[in-house]
Design goal:
With about 130 residues, the protein is α+β, with helices and mostly antiparallel strands. β2 and β3 form a beta hairpin. It starts with a helix and ends with a strand. It is about 25% helix and about 30% strand. Strands 4, 5, 6, 7 and 8 form a five-stranded antiparallel β-sheet that branches. Strands 1-3-2 form a three-stranded antiparallel β-sheet, with helices on one face.
Length: about 130
């Protein structure tokens, strides 16, 4: 697999489009951090990392509106890819949906959101947009 982050986002996107409640994804440190951020920002209900013999998996409970059954995640867009990395500094930090969405950025301080990167005054690689 050449781009595990794109695979992660595609699995979540496909599960949301199909209306699934839970999605299983092979675990890694980066995917765990992405899942933690999605949980903190309210895009997913919960997650659990399950230990397995060949490899660990992340079980993600997707979040839907109780009455309209609309998903909390409208779009997941991969920005930086292995063939074309996209970097930004603090001055050119992207605003997703005029501040309503989040950009997840890989920085020297770890994987954080665009708002956290502005407060820490660091730039980095733009991994994805979520709204």
């Amino acid at each position: 697999m050449t781009d595990p982050i794109a695979d992660y986002l595609t699995r979540i996107r496909n599960a949301v489009n199909a209306g699934h409640k839970i999605v299983e994804i092979p675990a890694s440190r980066v995917k765990t951090e992405l899942t933690r951020i999605l949980h903190e920002k309210g895009y997913i209900l919960s997650y659990r990392i399950e230990e397995g013999k060949p490899s660990n998996t992340i079980k993600i409970a997707l979040k839907y509106h109780p009455e309209t059954k609309r998903p909390a995640i409208k779009k997941l867009i991969r920005v930086s890819s292995p063939g074309l990395r996209r970097y930004t500094n603090v001055d050119n930090m992207p605003r997703v949906l005029n501040g309503l969405g989040i950009a997840i950025i890989s920085t020297s301080r770890g994987i954080i959101t665009d708002k956290e990167a502005k407060t820490l005054n660091v730039g980095g690689e733009i991994m994805c947009y979520v709204y």
